[in-house]
Design brief:
Elements lengths: L1 H24 L4 E6 L6 E10 L2 E9 L29 E9 L2 E9 L4 E10 L2 E8 L2 E10 L1
Antiparallel strand pairs: 1-2, 1-8, 2-3, 3-4, 4-5, 5-6, 6-7, 7-8
Protein name: DUF2147 domain-containing protein
Organism: Caldithrix abyssi
Keywords: Signal
Length: 148
């Protein structure tokens, strides 16, 4: 009887630990390598965090090619947006996302290179972050990869 209690305890600990790992894997919070859906090349590292019950994403660093500005500004952002003419590194590009089941919705994402702001939906699929920007029924989806 004593050994079966130990086995049961070990199984419960394993199940609890495994559940914690899966919950972390399903969280969008953390650092993500963004991939350009047109070129397939890495663009940036974005940190996603929770603030006051909503989720936001900030550009931590950029992958730049030789000859590209290493510290660009958002000169194509809308002039009435507070991010206009601000540095891209450190910029909050994901705003006001709300968790709804397994998805994060009702927020926006900014493409600082083009200066366009899109409605946004985020979700985890096979450990990767799926990032969909859309206007009406037109959308594009990028796959971002977790950075340890």
């Amino acid at each position: 009887m004593h050994s079966s209690l130990k086995i049961l305890s070990a199984v419960l600990v394993f199940i609890s630990f495994n559940g914690l790992l899966n919950a972390q894997d399903n969280s969008i919070v953390g650092r993500w390598k963004t991939i350009d859906d047109e070129t397939g090349e890495p663009k940036s590292i974005v940190s996603i965090y929770e603030r006051d019950g909503k989720y936001y994403g900030r550009i931590d660093s950029l992958f730049r090619k030789p000859g590209e500005d290493p510290d660009p500004i958002c000169d194509k952002c809308p002039e009435d947006d507070p991010r206009y003419k601000q540095k891209t590194i450190g910029m909050e590009i994901i705003k006001d996302m709300v968790k709804d089941g397994d998805e994060y919705v009702d927020g926006t994402i900014l493409d600082p290179k083009k200066g366009k702001i899109y409605n946004c939906k985020l979700w985890i699929e096979d450990g990767k972050l799926m990032v969909r920007g859309y206007i009406l029924f037109l959308y594009r989806t990028q796959t971002w990869y977790r950075v340890d």
